[in-house]
Amino acid sequence: MIIRKLGEHEQPPMDLLLLADPNRSLVEQYVQRGSCFIADKDGSAIGVYVLIPTRPATVELVNVAVLEALHGQGIGKLLVLHAVQSAREMGFQTIEVGTGSTGVAQLALYQKCGFRMTGIDRDFFIRHYDEPIYENGMQLKDMVRLSQDL
User: Fold this and answer.
1) With CB atoms counted within 10 Å of each terminal CB, which end of the chain scores lower, N or C?
2) H/E segment holding residue 30
3) Rounded to an integer, what distance in angstroms lies between the CA atom of residue 19 and that of residue 121?
4) In angstroms, rounded to a whole number, what is the distance separating the alpha carbons of residues 51 and 94?
5) What is the torsion angle, in degrees rounded to the nearest 10, for the CA atoms of residue 99, residue 101, residue 107 and residue 110?
6) Is 61:94 a contact under the CB 8 Å cutoff?
C-alpha cells in the first residue's frame, strides 16, 4: 500500500469520501479547496483523507475514510499519521480535526495519533445535515474538535 496525493486530473474516490461524510455537496466543496490523498493498493483506492487550509499556519484534516471491509487493519491510523506528516512538510504549524461525539473509535484513533481535544461544536450535525445521522445507535449531534501542534 502507498499513500499518495491525488493526481491533478484524477477523479477523487467519491464512494470512499461519502463513507465519512454523506453530504455530497460539502464533500465536493472541500475536495476542491483542499489536497486529497489516497491509500492505493494494487491500483485501487482503499483509503482517503483531505487536508484543507483554514487559517494562517493551520490546516484541517477532513474525511478520513477506509473501505469498510478493511476496517481494523490499521489503515486509518496510517492515514492520520501520514496527514500529520504531510501537514508538517507543507509548513503548517497546527493540524485540526473534527469528529462526531458518538464515534468512540474515531476519538481514540485521533488521540493515539497525538491529537488533543479542544472543544465541542454543539448541534453541528443537526445544523449542517438535512437527514439525521446515526452512529453507534445514537443520533449524531455534536462535533468534537481536536488539534495538534506540529
Assistant:
1) N
2) helix 24-33
3) 21
4) 12
5) 30
6) no
Amino acid at 76: G
- Asked if 59 contacts 86 with a C-beta cutoff of 8 angstroms, the reply is no
Cell 493515539, located at residue:
112
Q: What is the pLDDT of residues 104-129, one digit of tens each?
A: 888 999 999 999 999 999 999 889 88
**Residue type (1 letter), 36:** C
How far is it, in rounded angstroms, from Cα 42 to Cα 37?
16
Q: Residue 106: CB partners within 8 Å, gap ≥ 6?
A: 99, 100
Cell of 111: 488521540
Q: Is the pLDDT score of 84 beyond 90?
A: yes
Q: How far apart are alpha carbons 123 and 141 in whole angstroms?
A: 5
Residue 20 has pLDDT above 90, yes or no: no
Helices (H), ranges, 34-117: 75-89, 104-112
- Grid cell in block for residue 130: 438535512
> Cα(103)–Cα(91) distance, rounded to whole angstroms?
30
Q: CA 94 to CA 147: how far, in whole Å? A: 7
